[in-house]
Amino acid sequence: MTPVELSRTVLHAVRRAVDAGELHVSVPARAVVTPPGPGGCGDYATNIALQLARPAGQPPLRVAEVLRPYLVDDDGIADVVLSGPGFLNISLHGAAPAGLVEEILRRGSRYGHADGPDGRLVELHCPRDLRAVVVAEAAGRVLRSQGALVRVTAEALDPEWTAALGVRVDAVGPAPAEPPVNVRPVPAPADPLPLGRDAARWALLHPAAHDRPRIGDEHLVQRESNPLFRVRYAHARCRAAARNAAGLGFTAAPGPVAGARELLVVLADHPRVLAATAAHRAPDRLARHLVTVADAALPFLPTVLPVGEEKPSAAHRARLALAQAVGAVLAGGLSLLGIDAPDHL
């Protein structure tokens, strides 16, 4: 069962509890499932009970107790343990990385995106400040990936920003009559345009909005000290693995992968990160997550291809599938930030 399928299973449990009269709530459009946090257990956890507690008029723990039997009743779920104020920790039958990798490869760079519009209308407005415009534009991209209809406006837009960084907004002028979401990060201390499109956008998006970004050549160096380099290098390595595997005559096939739990966990967390990035209008969350994915992937990637006279095996095909999934997540995340994901670096 993939995280997307488990999310649907959680929503189905809520719907069954509502139909049975045990909960009096509107079934939400989405249930977030993530790797268990501190104090949790199992394969995944969800905070759906905390989300429904207020509209249900019941404590979160009681909501969780109502939902547990409906979840345990599902054939793919082995057990559900309650923890904290009402988290549901879910253990799956035969939990395997193949399902997650298959889901990512099926969705490609759109893994973690909503299936379609959800009816939300979001207006983002920013001052005439390059960082504010870049953050608002990237936040708009992520919000759209999560099903929102978004309009980004700015008090003014310098044509050079569009020419150099590809920055675009939907309208220029005063804030609209309807109160918008104001995007006002700490301005950059220097002009980032000399860094070029990708490095400049990363320099403005990677720090949190309340942090002053560093504008310097450190974003251009081709070394591990540069987070942007690590992310793009990991993507290029994934693409190279696919090319080299084709040269050796074998293709990817999802399956068990030994020693890759950390990498699988961060890949499974990608939909949650996209949802949180959209909810908080904070592209820095996505940028930092991509660094986490890259850092988990780089030690794994040298194991993908056969070495020496070794023949390609099922293990190599499974590792190649996982590498392709990593590449899809990195490419999709960089695209949402407006940054190129090169095949060669």
Automatic annotation (TrEMBL):
Enzyme's top EC category: ligase
Family matches, as SMART domains: Arg_tRNA_synt_N, DALR_1
InterPro entries: Arg-tRNA-ligase, Arg-tRNA-synth_N, Arg-tRNA-synth_N_sf, DALR_anticod-bd, tRNAsynth_Ia_anticodon-bd
Protein EC: 6.1.1.19
Domain Arginyl tRNA synthetase N-terminal residues, every copy: 4-92
Catalyses which reaction(s): tRNA(Arg) + L-arginine + ATP = L-arginyl-tRNA(Arg) + AMP + diphosphate
Record-given protein name: arginine--tRNA ligase
Biological source species: Streptomyces ambofaciens
